[in-house]
Records
---
Amino acid sequence: MPEMNATALDALRSRLKTATIYTPESEGYKDVLVRWSNTGMKYAGVVIQPIDTLDISIALSWAQQYDVDLAVKGGGHSTAGTSSSDGGLVIDLSRMNQVTVDTERKTITAQGGATWKEVDEAGAVHSLAAVGGTVNHTGVGGLTLGGGYGWLSGQYGLTIDNLLSATVVLADGRIVTASATENVDLFWGLRGAGYNFGVVADFTYQAYDQKDPVYSGLLGFTSGKLEGVMDALNNSLAKPDSRFGAICIFALAPDGSGPMIIVIGFYNGPLEEGQKRFASLTALEPVLNTLDMVPYSVVNTLQNPQATYGDRKSFKGIFYEPPLDPHFARVIFNDFIAKIRSEPDLKTSAIILEFVDMRKICEVPLTGTALASRNPTQNGIIYLRWTDSSKDLEHRTWAREVQSKWKVKLDARTKDQGVDSGVPQYINYAEPGDSVVSNIYGENLQRLQEVKAKYDPKNVFHKMQPIPMGADLKK
């Protein structure tokens, strides 16, 4: 592990006002390096935990003065280590996790180190909900800056479509507000490429009345029901309902009883309507059925048992044009199950497919925000989890091969329809450097380069899907 220059460290300590500082000699140093995935952990030269924007500003100036590598940690869910630094500085926002609710304006403001658990629970106290993630220990920052899909997206759009303002600490130390009326170009860039411009100290979201419980839970099916499950989920998209959503998971049963198809269902309405909406799935006689009326804040805990901290993890984004071919799904399912059965260390891995009503999301023009992937294409993830670090390359290579099969299928499908298959893909499901998912910013790239040149001309923020800079930048 590279040693941090002692003079530089002394300078940092003398300048910071209230931040907690950790170096390799500090008690608790290894604790602050922990990430959701062990593949995301690196040994920082120094970690600071600020409680205000001033210390963030000071730290940014210091990192540039001493040419120190910089990373920013919110929820720490990056599997590729973008929230960590090998020998450099990590600005860890975890102490900045306050959430406040304005009941008159129906807004929720979350600091950059908060998780969706804090947002969900704070909103629930006032019968309000914001569009957040589907795993509640995910940080608000990463999910928001990349776009943000959630169970309420069918009704209200993406998280960024409900972002009202943000407080941003820029590379030059300035602390600014970005909104529809202030620093409008920065506000545009934050919504879909927001990792590239500064440290976001807080986000203010539009919230919505959510006093009633929702119909949600798990359905579990044996492998023989796969085609029936696919037909039912495809039909849900063919007859869309903005209040309905589902996540389909290919995995081994936790008790070791064999392969399963798990469906997490969601319906933002009363019991009778929810039961009707899921009737085609429940008619398939699931071996597990926990669908019931639950508080909205509970829905975002349903994936937590699978998405626990620890082990080594890899995300590979996959994308499909609905309806999803049940025969293709069967081939993918069988190959995946065979692989994780042959490699017991992969037994807790999964393929996760989303079924979301995209109509509200697609109402926003492609150039309305920096997010360029507003289209009917559905998202999914190849989620690998293992413990043996010597298998990192092997497992990631295999995941990329599976990812390529989805890309080939999407290309063939869109070609048949006479549609451009080069649609930009969802940034939050694309690991940096992923050659299969290479088109991120689409037609928004040139404008993003201009915003980048204005707010971060030295490219201080470059860890997550960096905006390419160079000769193609129009002055």
Note: The chain is about 30% helix and 25% strand.
---
Amino acid sequence: MAVESTDSSVHPGPVMGLILGSWQSRMLLAAVEYDLFTEVAKGPATSAELAERLGLVERGTNDLLAGLVHLGLLQSTDGTFANAPVSDAFLVKGRPAYLGGYLHFCEQELNPAWNGLADSLRTGKPQNQAAVIGNPYDTLYADADATDGFLDSMDLLNAPIAQALSRFDWSGYESFVDIGGARGNFAHQVVTHNPHLKGAVFDLPPLKPAFDRHMDRLGDTAGPVTFHGGDFFKDDLPQADVLVFGHVLHNWGVEDRVALLKRAYDALKPGGSVFVYDPMAGGDQPSMHGALAGLTMLVWSRGGHEYAADDLHGWLREAGFEPETVEVDGLHDDVLVIGRKAA
């Protein structure tokens, strides 16, 4: 049987590169699991020294270290290894910008769900069992250390959003509640820059200890930001001038989104507003960021997916709001849509 020749101008490199890229991410996750970058931060060391200190086999460790050098995460000089600047900044445990908590979340929660992508594409159902029976965050928030590590990373990644929206004109409002606001980092930023505001967080009750610890670290022991525990599908939302849904709606299906917006409408004071920010990277031709985010929601959440701002406008109108997309300086990867309730 004759085999047809392929076009000599086409090379399998891009296909093989995708597979190699997946393996490269496994190298990073393994290094973080063993706190390799934290150990290297103590001082340059050889492969043999690091293998002994971390309890690893030297042969595999040497290949791992060489690979991390090629990835730009380590530097090698005369047989010793040191952290590259990016690793020193983001991969050393205990430093302010440590991203290990998010990488642990990816390894423990997202990657297992992504392994079932083919099944989710066929069935439309998530691979995360917590999402199948309830809230996808239930398993994550069951572990205090995992919760703190995850929230450390989320606060770091979301800091530009909090900074941008803290500079928004809040002069027409006296109070707000960050729905799904975790341990209050966004609310703290907004209140700090707008001291006339009374801020609050509404989230699952298991997050209350993490909220208290974070407020204590920030020096907010007097309680300028308060915490309300509850399930936003079952419990009444606190009354306020503004309810904020930041990176919340894309976790849920359309029916759940509309239900949440209707609950928000009922909780808002007359003349109040709902603020919604998300990537809003949906549509017929989403960006790569939007496609990855959408598929993550498919495999991990209960019906979640990315959406376009026009879609949100329709859901807001259905809930009784008058919607408007608002330009905010510094809000680069997200879009803010405000829904206003009549006075």
Note: The chain has a mean pLDDT of 90.
